[in-house]
Amino acid sequence: MTTATLLPEPTDLSSLVETAQLLVAEDKGLLAIDESISTCNKRFAALCIAQDEPTRRAYRELLVTTPGLGDFISGVILFDETIRQHTSDGVPFLTVLTDAGVVPGIKVDLGAKPLAGHPGETVTEGLDGLRQRLGEYAGMGARFAKWRAVFTIGAASPSRACTQANAHALARYAALCQEAGLVAIVEPEVLMTGAHTLARCAQVTEDVLHEVFEQLRTQEVVVEAMLLKPNMILAGTDCAEQESNQTVAAATITCLRRAVPAAVAGVAFLSGGQSGDLATARLAAINADPDLLPWPVAFSFGRAIQEPALSIWAGQDANVRAAQQALLIRASSNQDARRGDDTNAKGRPVKTVGTLPPAPSRPIEVHLLPPTSRTEPA
User: Fold this and answer.
1) Alpha carbons 222 and 333: distance in angstroms, whole number
2) What is the pLDDT of residues 306-316, one digit of tens each?
């Protein structure tokens, strides 16, 4: 005998729905400056920049204080070190971003670690103590969080165990975010590394996304109050056959339409090691026909936006303004790409930064329903 149990209605998540919609509104996107200390130091070392906290703070100050950043960027993903830092004048970075109309967020996973029993595969850790950390970040002023899981394509990978373990962790993270009043950005990244074909990437990505959303449903995550940060469908970097941007766009749209519920608040692609120009061109191709997209399709790029600015700055205060201008040009190009316009490919000069009018915001009214009743064993 079974008994139908009606679960309680979810906590009011209307403010999270509004924040999620805000992050993908007005053809803007997210800037990821959430590199770990070791990753940031490696990038600095490649340019002979000092690898210490004051230099990292100075670089992040350059980014968050860029005049006009909020014209193109809706949210910035920070790292634990960065969310606690201040400008040279003593103003918290969180205050600088909020005053500029940019939503602050925080990376909360602790990185990919070896998955026991599955050599060469990883599982992202960080669930222990996450409830307390999310509470702290929310109290500091963060309004969204991000968790990344990585999947490597090989002859027999990713394994079912790897896919399930990471999808389960992503779902538990997202549930904890909604409990803490934060929008969850869910990032399952199928890596470009390898010689796999575009078709193989599509197969793996679709399988991963199906498992992620099954786990999200199991954990009763409200998808209207979250964003998905997926990879584009790409052949591996060592594959001899690299497809056109239009083929990449078609494969990516097909994959996401098969696996991602239309109710999700938005999709913000990661760049995943692509060059800035290529990531932007492919984003433009994906957005070329908005009628094919059930969700707003934005960007959540790190190096693809930052790289020119970092190279120009090179650790020198005299280069700050030029670096900030380069950052805005990259951000502006990606806003154009959201409109299906690959500005640079058309040979037109990039618009003067600061003069591009924002597209009108069209918020979607969402009515959250109680969870579907389920039957539980007697």
Assistant:
1) 32
2) 999 999 999 99
The DSSP result for 216-278, as a single string, is HHHTT--GGGEEE-PPP----TT-S-PPPHHHHHHHHHHHHHHHS-TTSSEEEE--TT--HHH
Q: Is 347 exposed, middle or buried (0-12, 13-18, 19+ CB in 10 A)?
A: exposed
Q: What tokens does 300 get?
A: 């959540």
Amino acid identity, position 217: R
More confident: 216 or 361: 216
Q: Return the SS3 of 106.
A: strand
187 DSSP β-pair partners: 148
Task: Choose the catalytic residue: 28, 107, 146, 229.
Answer: 229
**Active-site option among 61, 187, 211, 224:** 187
* pTM (two decimals): 0.89
Quote the CA–CA distance of 160 and 219 in Å, as a whole number.
19
d(CA 67, CA 114): 42
Instruction: Tell me if residue 113 is catalytic.
Output: no
Element (DSSP H or E) covering residue 104: strand 103-107
Helix, strand, coil distribution of the chain in percent, nearest 5: 45, 15, 40
**Any catalytic annotation for residue 307?**
no
C-alpha distances in Å from residue 365, one per residue of 24, 101, 224: 15, 22, 10
Q: φ and ψ at 301, to 5 degrees?
A: -105, 145
